[in-house]
Write a structure and sequence with these properties.
single chain; about 240 residues; alpha+beta; Alpha-Beta Plaits; three-stranded mixed beta sheet; about 20% helix
Length: about 240
């Protein structure tokens, strides 16, 4: 688990367009918007209450790996993390230490999409940022551009096991991937696996929903409770909000 001071996390940041031939066995992480029925009327978002998130709970991490077939290869520098937990400490010790999950913030103005030379990173109609593995050439420009360090390069081929989720394609070596808000679940009327797991663990630190629906719980919370996003100064309009940060 990474440990950061409060000022660091609020300032968290990292800073050949050509036709791509399809290799045998390469598959999309998710289909483009026109094939999924994604609607521009929706604006999916997540709210994380750091007052309810505890350092010893890893329910969201475990659920994410299981749901999306995200393996650990035992190489810290090359392991894939769609969601990770960080601990924030106030250098001046005026505020309590908090623990929170960090994942793709599904920015309204995603820098990863802007720098991608092959348009492999794209935005669905409902605002979810995805990666088209047919087009990804593993250049890692998007990884450098992401201020949330939410993308990983796949260094190893993986194989499907009996525990693998058949709805999620097996990843291909040499491409970049990240959290998708469990888009395959959303398209089936479900919420992300991490949110489900958090609620089942009794923490209820994660809330997910449509900000465009004024009657949704998340829309009401964002309107009535003081929340923050990470690096709002960048103007990316991230859709992961934090309460108690």
């Amino acid at each position: 688990m990474a440990t950061l001071d409060r000022r660091s996390v609020l300032g968290l940041g990292g800073a050949v367009a050509a036709g791509v031939l399809l290799a045998p066995g390469v598959s999309l992480l998710a289909a483009p918007a026109e094939k999924t029925g994604a609607s521009a009327d929706r604006r999916w978002a997540m709210l994380i209450d750091t007052n309810r998130c505890t350092a010893d709970c890893t329910a969201c991490l475990t659920a994410c790996r299981k749901e999306n077939n995200v393996p650990l290869f035992g190489e810290p520098a090359r392991d894939i993390h769609w969601i990770r937990k960080v601990t924030i400490r106030d250098k001046d010790q005026r505020r309590p230490t908090v623990t929170l999950p960090v994942l793709c913030n599904q920015c309204e103005h995603p820098p990863c999409v802007h720098v991608c030379p092959t348009e492999a990173s794209f935005v669905r109609k409902d605002g979810i940022v995805l990666v088209d593995e047919h087009r990804c050439i593993g250049c890692r420009y998007c990884m450098i551009a992401c201020p949330y360090k939410a993308r990983s390069l796949v260094y190893h081929e993986t194989k499907r096991t009996l525990e693998s989720n058949p709805e999620v394609p097996i990843r291909s070596k040499g491409v970049v991937e990240k959290c998708t808000f469990c888009v395959h679940r959303l398209d089936n009327g479900l919420q992300p696996a991490c949110v489900d797991a958090c609620q089942k663990a009794g923490k209820e630190a994660m809330l997910f929903g449509d900000l465009n629906d004024p009657n949704s719980e998340i829309a009401k919370r964002v309107r009535t409770v003081a929340t923050k996003t990470i690096r709002p100064d960048l103007g990316l309009k991230p859709r992961v909000h934090y309460q108690g940060l």
